[in-house]
Specification:
The complex is a heterodimer of chains A (510) and B (340).
Chain A (H helix, E strand, L loop, with lengths): L2 E12 L2 E12 L3 E5 L6 H9 L8 E6 L2 E3 L4 H6 L2 E4 L11 H5 L6 E2 L2 E2 L1 H15 L14 H14 L4 E5 L7 H16 L3 E5 L3 H7 L2 E6 L2 E7 L7 H9 L17 E11 L7 E11 L3 E5 L6 H8 L6 E9 L2 E2 L5 H7 L1 E4 L3 H5 L6 H6 L7 E2 L2 E2 L1 H14 L16 H14 L4 E5 L7 H16 L3 E5 L3 H7 L2 E6 L2 E7 L5 H9 L6
Parallel strand pairs in A: 3-10, 3-11, 6-9, 9-10, 15-22, 15-23, 18-21, 21-22
Antiparallel strand pairs in A: 1-2, 1-4, 4-5, 7-8, 11-12, 13-14, 13-16, 16-17, 19-20, 23-24
Helix pairs in contact in A: 4-5, 8-17
Chain B lengths: L8 H19 L6 H26 L7 H19 L5 H25 L4 H20 L11 H8 L1 E6 L4 E5 L1 H18 L1 H11 L1 H6 L4 H27 L10 H11 L11 H20 L4 H23 L11 H5 L2
Antiparallel strand pairs in B: 1-2
Helix pairs in contact in B: 1-12, 2-7, 2-8, 2-10, 2-11, 2-12, 3-4, 3-5, 3-10, 4-5, 4-10, 6-10, 7-8, 7-10, 8-10, 11-12, 11-13
Classes of the chains: A alpha/beta (510), B mainly alpha (340).
Chain lengths: 510, 340
Amino acid sequence: MADILDMRDITKRFGPVTALRDVTLTVRAGEIHALVGENGAGKSTLMKVLSGVYPAGSYEGSITYDGQVRHFRSINDTEALGIIIIHQELALIPLLSIAENIFLANPPGRFGVINRDAVHARTVALLAKVGLRESPGTPVTDIGVGKQQLVEIAKALSKQVRLLILDEPTASLNERDSAALLDLLVEFRAGGISSILISHKLNEVTRVADRITVLRDGRTVETVDCRIQAVEEDLIIRRMVDRDLDSRFPDHAPQIGEEVFRVEDWSVDHPHHPGRQVVRGVGFHVRRGEIVGIAGLMGAGRTEFAMSVFGRSYGRDIRGRAFMDGKPVDLSTVPQAIAAGLAYVTEDRKHLGLILGEDIRKNVTLANLGGVSRSTVIDDMRELAVADDYRGRMRIRCSSVYQESGNLSGGNQQKVVLSKWLFSGPEVLILDEPTRGIDVGAKYEIYQIINTLADRGKGVIVISSEMPELLGLCDRICVMNEGAFVGEFSRAEASQEKIMRSIMRKGEQP
Amino acid sequence: MKRLGLRSPEAGVAAVLVVAALAIGTANPAFWGWGNLFGLLRSASVSGTMALGVLVVLIAGGIDVSFPAFAAAAMYLSVRAAADWGWPGNIGFMFLLAAGIGLLLGLANALFVHGVRLVPLIVTLGTGAVVRGFLLGVVGTSVVNVGRMPPETVAFGRLSLLQWDAGEGRVQLSVAVLVWAAAAALVHLLLRFTVPGRGLYALGGDAEAAKRVGFDVRGLTVLAYGLAGALAGVAGLLHACLAWQASPREFIGLELDVLAAVVLGGASIFGGRGSVPGTVLGVLLLVLVNNSLILLGVPTTWQRVVVGAILVGAAAATALRERGLRPAPSITAPSMTTGA
């Protein structure tokens, strides 16, 4: 069978960060090729290189498609050749009809006048092909997300697709819709259409894929041919996470005390889709002096869980009970959560953690202005002293505390955010991706700060997508998937493979 | 203080103000007379007081174009009450009444902005039009002129802080300047030294971040629009006292001048930035510019062109200065943050 696509030695850098290094991917004509890997392994970046989002010249390596070396400059170039990508977040316009969405960019017609009869007729034909029984005139907002996915595929078919790329197509679909979608891919394969399927669900991947390419940390690890060798899920998981754990983490002997914080039966609905549960009746606790990690894939509900606990900053219809030191507490508003002794350090440091236009001093005291003021009048000298104190303790590198926080490096910004929350006097800190986007040296310092907090008897919860970080830092690791906790490991028993396995198998304990 | 350093927006406006004054003074030495300078301050006091309210709203991340209508309503209602019924009968109470009317109208703005989460520009365009319409349609269109003005207002308007006889006439520093200065001091203290003041900057700097540290967003919104309304009311009555007449059609189009002055003074239309000293300087500069345009015989229509250009130019300058301090579209590895 001939190759329709051959991507060779693709290297893609973003400034100092190398997102892809010598990645190779070949897709044969008429095959379903699965692409698997952890968050940040480089799957989406690779597909953006392929689809022309990152134009030729912005990466190294070569792309051969349909027998010719190609230099795609935009999505239009690739779509013209039948390479269609369907993103996880669907690109449909909610208030337009199915037919209007399918023929949005290039409707049939002449001289700019749309031939409505042709649109209707062709939509009916396309919907039949994807097995969607809906009237072409139905607005897409009125159909479920599974059917919307089919509309996207019909749209791809309308563009004479030859290579269909699906990024996590079944992430928000139920079992039946997922199965229907995968069957459709198999049907397309018989018709000569190749697919690249990006998925975290290994059972789906092994069911339909002809070959599987595993990416890890921006490199191709292996391409497994499912028709030659029987695929073991364990093998693929091992390939996805197999890396050395070096000494990037400070030593730490935990002194774990009494339980300090607990939630029971905690459920949260999506803020815009009432009834869609994002967090499903979870229970969770942390003890004094303990660092608990929450592992999971993007969209597992980790941030949503943390934010809903912290003063209902996310979601609606939040149900469940919370206890501090064994006593029930009301966490309905952010001030109540702060008063109860909680602090949530956001994953979105630049947008939600800091007021970038303000100086370090004002950012540090922002969550506890009461601590530097008397009957609402701020004491400038006291504020300055507090900010200087944290500048020294956290080793924030800056010209003075009057420096605007927007001009600081990522690591120093994170130290400012941490200072802000420490000054609010919390007993329990939730740190969401605390080292995202900061360099190795600063990471080490943040780890030291986290250890010191635990030593002082705080309960620390760390949400991280970097598995080595969780393993190196945490005394206990909970695994979250699809809004529920599906596994829990002590420091001794935790390993990357076990965590990944419990994510992939939805809670089946090893 | 770093913020008042030589590179701050305030220093920039101050420099332009000095240069403009020197230029005008060289062309026409009469400019430097006490009478002229005090006259400029007097004519700046009304829009200057309004500008303080607009400043607070801009810092909190909103915008207000309803204040000219609110000022007209507060002025006209309080003057009519005094002229027709002799109530409340005392200039102090009249100012309280005008401030109260402005406050209530400002609260309506806050209700729609926070309660219904509408865009502030739309809300204040609407409330301004509604209030102006009611004023003309229900209360009346007649101008209260000198003969019918309540005597206490006229007396207040004639009060001077300082006066002496110069060669060609009396030099007077109007009491209106004191009203403006008092309001400026009050707003400055609020913004600079209090927790709610810090909250206003935080809300405008990043509303979501402010929420996440527990600021009461509703309370701060009420504070901003309520204060803007009250200050507009005070400024409205102040104008009537100075002009010895009260017209319900007063202040139409003034939002352009006041916004231009506030933005000129370094306040950001995106919120989170601005100061009272900057705003005071901005108002003075704008009054100076308008004044010299009149002296040069430039027609009113062309003055609008100049003020409009100043508004856009000053806003652009602030925006350019701030670029890079806000989360811009990231050019660093998106796959590292959004997953691959």
